[in-house]
């Protein structure tokens, strides 16, 4: 389908997922990936990583406004997903980057971003 056939209000969010070797932390690479897709969503951002537990940071605003050294240091794990949200994807909300838990990826527990 040509781009001209898509509805004008098509949602434009950005998503990135990384699965790295055991013992690595992928949060920095996810952050850099979110900066690269920031043009697809400037309303909110979120990252979830997994090591022995889920680590989540999400918030309203641009990627550089949501994440800082302190909260990035807590995002440990070799599995991770990140999301930037467009305000056209349902309006602006206080829920931030919409990173949530779901039985979706990585077995019984996982991360889903929408």
Please explain how this structure is put together:
It is a single chain. 17% of the residues lie in helices and 31% in strands. It is an alpha+beta fold. The strands form 2 sheets. It has a 4-stranded antiparallel sheet with strand order 1-4-2-3. A two-stranded antiparallel sheet has the order 5-6. It starts with 13 loop residues before the first strand and ends with a strand. Mean pLDDT is 78; it is low at 96-114.
Task: Give short descriptive properties of this protein.
alpha+beta, four-stranded antiparallel β-sheet, 114 residues, two-stranded antiparallel sheet, globular, 3 helices, disordered C terminus, single chain
Q: Quick recap of the structure?
A:
With about 110 residues, the chain is an alpha+beta fold. It is built from 3 helices and 6 strands.
Helix content: 10-25%
Taking pLDDT < 50 over at least 5 consecutive residues as the criterion, the unreliable ranges are 96-114
Radius of gyration: 14 Å
Largest sheet: 4 strands, antiparallel
What's the end-to-end separation, in Å? Answer: 24 Å
How many strands in all? 6
């Amino acid at each position: 389908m040509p781009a001209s056939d898509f509805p004008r209000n098509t949602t434009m969010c950005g998503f990135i997922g990384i699965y790295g070797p055991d013992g690595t932390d992928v949060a920095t690479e996810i952050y850099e990936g979110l900066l690269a897709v920031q043009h697809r969503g400037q309303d909110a951002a979120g990252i979830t990583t997994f090591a022995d537990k889920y680590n989540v940071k999400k918030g309203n605003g641009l990627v550089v406004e949501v994440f800082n050294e302190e909260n990035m240091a807590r995002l440990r794990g070799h599995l991770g997903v990140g999301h930037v949200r467009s305000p056209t994807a349902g309006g602006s909300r206080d829920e931030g980057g919409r990173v949530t838990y779901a039985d979706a990826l990585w077995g019984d527990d996982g991360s889903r971003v929408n």
